[in-house]
Amino acid sequence: MEDRLKKIIDSIRPVDLGLEPEIQAHLDDLTKPKGSLGRLEEIAKTYCLIRHDVKPALPKKAVLVFAADHGVTEEGVSAFPKEVTFQMVYNFLSGGAGINVLARHAGADVRVVDIGVDYDFPELEGLIRRKVMHGSRNMAKTTAMDRDKAVEAIMAGAELAKEAVSQGSTLLATGEMGIGNTTPASAITAVFCKMRPEDVTGRGTGINQDALGHKTAVIEQAIRLNSPDPSDPIGVLSKVGGLEIAGICGLVLGAASLGTPVVVDGFISTAGALVAHALQPIVRDYLFASHQSVEKGHRAQLSHMGLRPVLDLDLRLGEGTGAALAMGLIDAGLKIYLEMATFSGAKVSTGSEIL
Amino acid sequence: MEDRLKKIIDSIRPVDLGLEPEIQAHLDDLTKPKGSLGRLEEIAKTYCLIRHDVKPALPKKAVLVFAADHGVTEEGVSAFPKEVTFQMVYNFLSGGAGINVLARHAGADVRVVDIGVDYDFPELEGLIRRKVMHGSRNMAKTTAMDRDKAVEAIMAGAELAKEAVSQGSTLLATGEMGIGNTTPASAITAVFCKMRPEDVTGRGTGINQDALGHKTAVIEQAIRLNSPDPSDPIGVLSKVGGLEIAGICGLVLGAASLGTPVVVDGFISTAGALVAHALQPIVRDYLFASHQSVEKGHRAQLSHMGLRPVLDLDLRLGEGTGAALAMGLIDAGLKIYLEMATFSGAKVSTGSEIL
Questions:
Q1: pTM higher than the cut 0.95
Q2: Which one of B314, B319, B334, B347 makes the best mutation probe of the A interface by having the most chain A beta carbons within 10 Å?
Q3: Helix-strand-coil percent breakdown of chain B, rounded to 5?
Q4: Domain range for residue A301?
Q5: What is the predicted pLDDT for the residue at B352?
Q6: Count: domains in chain A
Q7: Does residue A26 have a pLDDT over 80?
Q8: With contacts defined as CB-CB under 8 Å, which chain B residues touch A211?
């Protein structure tokens, strides 16, 4: 299966910038001072370039929410009990979670994926069943998962990206649910950004100062025990990762291989993107960073990949909530690009030579 | 007329915080870690408090775009010729401007007000005719307008707020169009924030370094000549203001007097809010700062009133574009508040004592 993954990785091509002058010329002909809509213009241009289309339709949007459990919760790293993961899956399916509300607001579909929840769901309408394991193992005591399981979870993400694209989606977003998952996300961030765990470990769902110290120690122990090597990204995932993080990594790789942009949510999602980026740095061309999370390691992740978030709203929920909000702004940027009048068309005078 | 204005100003009451515990309790019962949706939660709470309603309907939204001309353009302070003001009014009315696109995206009405354009429009569908003068005078040579004209423009803004509210609007936004209007906005900012013109003067629609130096000198001259006194805000408006800025000031006062929140757009709009704030500091309770503008004086304005913007997208277009985008996020916050499941309702376990 690692061969099939390698094929996907090798098929990813840099975004073709050939249409840039034409896209920029259109942006500059819109009835506004050049560049005065700032990042909205930048977003529209990026989307058009990725889609290789000077006049794309408005995006068809889907948020993929990967749910998984984490053996490391037995170390007491989270404020919430592990069963919240499966309970929240039910909440997603019934439409009552934050991501449901914000995806509806953005006009995006929500696809809920059980990629590693430690719970046996009955047949449920809307649940995508791609369970690779009943949760990862406790990385403070052993590897989080076998290497082939990490690859299987990545492939699941890539296949789900392909499925969404084949069903018409042109803009995907990452989301996740997994009690304890800021712990592997911090470990992954420490490894790839070459930082100390204490500098990339935050309060997750809201633990206190003592618990934060303990959580940091657990991450340090997991790294010491497993010796993850950043030059082997799949090894890092299998040693100190999580199944939803692997799924997100696969979603990013799969989408990039299909020329489809991905809006990356917060800290956990960006950890998945970080693994994808380590496997294939070109994926960066296809990513929109949605928001600046409160989690302190998030800044290091984004700066490692050279991404600038669109929003800064003190969010720390995950699920894809920040990505869904950013999708609304991507739509806004594209509507500017597609719907605004031009100077020539609207008979508005342009600026003088002191522009 | 100044008496009628004084009545409005005196009728503004601080927002009643009595419902805060009930609103916060509901936010904390939603299926997410407490406070994890950051500013979305804060926005929802602020809106509910202003509306004095623990279960408000989603906002009915309107953006009021005030257009006016500025005699000071004869000093060569803008990159665009003056006729762009009236041309853009036509563009607003035909739906092709940035504000039209972004207001449609947010589900907000756009109301276009001629409060002082130096052009005689024929009868036009959708144009609100409240012309106070055919543009302000050149503040580098004399006062921008007589005091009674400033009051008349403020009253027009207040009356339009009242009209919008009586027609069902529950969330208003400010917008403006007026070639040259960053010049009076910078002058107003310098006066109220007690800063040097060079520290609050930016490139507007995009002038070069030389032109920026000239623009700053013009503002310095206008202030020297007119000696605006920050303890007399109407005097400041009449000496170095603009008619659209006065209209926005009135909109803020009128909305606050009716318990209606106002989303303030960028630099010019915030100059209007600054005058309203000088007349009645309580208006601050009713304001949402939409975005951080590229114009350098904007930061000083916001910090003077203790407002924190929702967005930071390098915008510098005005028209109400940033406010319309922020309206989308206010809607998102309210949907979170109104539509998310609760812990009790969704049977999700709450956090432990280490929360």
A1: yes
A2: B314
A3: 50, 10, 35
A4: 61-329
A5: 55
A6: 2
A7: yes
A8: 354
